[in-house]
């Protein structure tokens, strides 16, 4: 089933289109695009590009429901590697799996419903654990970081892509205006859901900033922790190793 998007049979395609408009994942996509002017696609590509994953690696992609990250990482780990997509929400997992399958991405992918705070894997199971735009939603973040550390093999790494704190003073008022004035309106307009977008902007402000998250990673046992800002710190990538 290595068909591309254009070759999908009509019935399938209708199902696909219907899904895009009705599903949670469709809403997430819209949300992400509105929120970031589509830049989240670049952030994700960059995240994959600097992941340093190698052929044969076994990766856990947490909060991976949309499948976006897995699709980018799969070519890196190759056919002898494996990516386990974990998400707390069964509907998100289903939509993600349908999408990846429709793109012909099947081999090397596994799906499992799980809470990032209590991972259903033995110690030292993975070469890397990734979580993109997911940690923010986890209630006990410290616990999740400890779990990520626990399931990593020695020498393995955690990679976190998440909204962070804007580093450029001049950008802050614009960013706040976009988040608190424009975004909820767009949310109401396109998703009949202004409140979720308001919540989203607030959850980003509440999320630990670059330095705080770095310390939380160290607290969880990670070594050689590094942060890289993307787009003036609107988003940051944290990396830490289990040694
Ligand atoms: N990683 C994907 C991406 O970048 O497109 C999806 C990000 S989406 C904004 C956040 C995801 O986190 C949702 O699919 C949600 O179900 C999941 N999630 C929220 N809390 C979680 C938890 N405690 N454990 C695992 N997944 C969780």
Written description of the protein model:
The protein is α/β, with parallel strands linked by helices and 243 residues long. It has two domains: 5-23 and 32-164 and 207-241, Vaccinia Virus protein VP39 (Rossmann fold), CATH 3.40.50.150; 166-206, no CATH class. It contains nine helices and seven strands, in the order H-H-H-E-H-E-H-E-E-H-E-H-H-H-E-E. It has a seven-stranded mixed beta sheet, with helices on both faces. Strand 1, helix 4 (68-77) and strand 2 (82-87) form a beta-alpha-beta unit. Helix 2 (24-36) packs antiparallel against helix 7. It is globular and about 45 Å long. 38% of the residues are buried. The model is unreliable at 1-8 and 16-24 (pLDDT under 50). Bound molecules: S-adenosylmethionine. The site of S-adenosylmethionine has 20 residues, from helix 4.
């Amino acid at each position: 089933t290595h068909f591309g998007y254009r070759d999908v049979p009509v019935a399938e395609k209708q199902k696909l289109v219907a899904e895009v408009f009705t599903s949670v994942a469709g809403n997430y996509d819209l949300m992400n695009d509105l929120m970031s002017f589509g830049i989240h696609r670049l952030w994700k590509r960059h995240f994959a590009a600097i992941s340093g994953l190698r052929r044969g690696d076994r990766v856990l992609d947490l909060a991976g429901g949309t499948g976006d990250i897995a699709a980018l990482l799969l070519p890196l780990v190759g056919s002898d590697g494996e990516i386990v997509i974990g998400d707390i929400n069964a509907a998100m997992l289903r939509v993600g799996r349908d999408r990846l399958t429709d793109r012909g991405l099947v081999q090397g992918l596994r799906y499992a419903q799980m809470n990032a705070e209590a991972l259903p894997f033995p110690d030292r199971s993975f070469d890397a654990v990734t979580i993109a735009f997911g940690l923010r939603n986890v209630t006990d973040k410290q616990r999740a970081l400890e779990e990520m550390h626990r399931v990593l093999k020695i020498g393995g790494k955690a990679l976190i892509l998440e909204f962070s704190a804007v580093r450029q003073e001049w950008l802050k008022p614009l960013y706040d205006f976009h988040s608190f004035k424009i975004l909820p309106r767009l949310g109401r307009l396109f998703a009949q859901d202004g409140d979720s977008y308001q919540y989203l902007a607030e959850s980003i402000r509440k999320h630990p900033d670059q330095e705080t998250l770095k310390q939380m990673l160290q607290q969880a046992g990670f070594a050689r922790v590094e942060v890289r800002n993307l787009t003036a710190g609107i988003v940051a990538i944290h990396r830490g190793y289990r040694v």
